[in-house]
Amino acid sequence: MTRRSLIISAVGAALLFVGAGCISVGTNPTAVASDGGIFKSVNKGDTWAQKAAIPTTTPDRRSISGVSVAYIAQDPQDSNALYIGTVENGMFYTYDGGESWFQSVLNRGRVASIAVHPKDKCIVYATSEFKLLKTEDCSRTWNVAFLDSRSDKQTKAVAIDSYNPDIIWLATNSGDLLETLDAGESWASVKNFNDDIYKLIISPVDTRHVYVATKGNGVWRTQDGGATWTDLSKNYKDFAGTREFSDMVLAPSEPKTLIIASKFGLIRSVDGGDTWSKIDLLTPAGSTVIYSLAVDPKDPNSIYYGTSTTFYRSTNGGVNWVPKKLPTSRTATYLLVDSVNSSALYMGVTRFK
Domain limits at 227? Predict the structure, then answer.
């Protein structure tokens, strides 16, 4: 694989201690901020229930109902184990499908991306400020797996190779894409995309196929593990507004099916990004901001997306849509379809200031 010869060592193997002070997580269930956190549906989005409880031995009620959610990750081995990265309050996790939540020692700041080891549920990676953090003991302690010397930069996305979990990809807001072949001991620079990287996806079938989505410089694909890259935006340039990226998903059951949400709306490729077609929505192109996007891991025709007011569902590839009012005053910023039970969906919401 062709890379710059610079090898970036993982700085700081010492244990990272994060302040254990209390944070505001919506302890008052009647407060204005109490409609945040996570919502769960067991019927594909027809109805939603807020899942926010934090167990306590005191009379005080605690919850995550005040947090804004940036990311949701599900354990590949245990669908009841989920992790959420928040905008300001670090990371929370649940082992019972959202019925109860616990706060990680990562209890402050933005956690934009989380990746769970496909074979060892106690190994988790999380982006935090200009670092990538790693736990090997189910979130009890965290170590620094990567540290950017430029403290004004941010790690934005992390993904684990499902075939070889020692291979991890890391993206930053300065456009840097990095890779480790030894689970974070050392790093190599793969490519700079000259723009903030918003999304990073590895194909579950052929992990040499990786997709990188930037804020405004297009979506890129490698089919040889990062040696060469193709700018896919050249293939969908006729759809106005598609360079203003919002979200991207890959259909696990048909891993050449890729859907992109942008200012234009939704476009889809069924050949890994070589050709694209628009998905007709109920709203005119460019008139609605899509903040979150998901596809059923078992059925590529079941597509979901969220806006600031509405949740949309299609079960026939976008031919028809069912709109539902959001169960919150906040914006639907992350959607996840349960990997085992396709009727179960998780929605993370955010209050924009």
Answer: 7-246+333-346
